[in-house]
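Risk register update: the risk of archive-format incompatibility is retired. Evidence:
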Amino acid sequence: MSEQPAGGDLSRLRQLNAAAVLRELRGDQPLTLTELSKRTRLSRASTEDVARDLLGRGWLTEVAPASGSVGRPARRYRFNAGAGRLLGIDIGGHKALALVTDLDGEVLNQSRIEVDPELGRRERLAVLDRCVRKALAGAGVDAGQIWSTGVATTGLVDGTGKVMLSDSLPEWTGVDLGAHVRRLVPGPVRVENDCKLAALAETWRGVARYAKDVVFLLAGLRTGAGLIIDGKLHRGFANWSGEIGALPAAGWQQAPNHLHTWLDASSAPGADGFERVFVAARAGDREALAAVRAYVQDLAVGASALVLTLDPQLVVIGGGFSRSADVMVEPLRRELDRWCLRTPEIRVSAFADEGVALGAVRLALDEVESTITTGLRP
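Archived output:
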């Protein structure tokens, strides 16, 4: 990395140098200044200045010398994941989920409350409040210790944290979710669409972490998409990217109806809700297999449009239905083969419906890491 400031922008240079050092210290092993200098391609003097600054701000911690070393031991540093705490929240149609993590995203405690999908705005926000307080209490963390909070929600969200449009939650359009959560925790709060954050989680800690171009499909009680382009979450001009389901011809609006029809006609015992369809299909039930196949065919129309537009390396299936991906992947691949010039690799999320909350944690961490531009801690 060059150490020469571009256009005299020293603050930008300090940001890049600090980011480089933090990135290298994210691993499991502590590093010496010499090792950091080699990895970041900074001079030793610059590396030492950055390490001193980050150490003073709590981002780094100095590690005790290795036992048995001869002579004056080299100073070693590691990222101080315990310096602060993050909060990730997923508020959706059927649940509220809150994760309290360290600065590495390791979950210290989580709280989950099931939600009636017909709840109104006030009742749903009250559930969110209880969920957050329960998660904080279980982690032994005060609200003031949260450095940053990420919030995921269904619907279209603007840059201030307000829900601009939601057609799946009653009374949810117009909710200023950012302002509401700021009354619970004093640190910075960022709000984003749930599909986008699920995609972010996959590239951070999931099956897409080595891919640069990804289409994430949220397959569940609701269908949505998140796009990763050149390794970054793509939001679009007005933060409405990936909303291909709004186009009726894309097939996503009617896709769940095939599963509903089978459930209405079936008296098969077993799992609750939609899981019954997938269980029956897995067991070879012809009607259930036909319902799943019809669902996947509709899912594939919108997915094919995204694949043809982006030409991604991966398509990742997440959401509640991803637990039953064993009966979905092959039909989806066949449908993509029909419509796409090149069918990308299809992988299944390992997060199920917890990936959205983890993406919210990543959003919170992005906010924390952006403070290296100011030299201030949250």
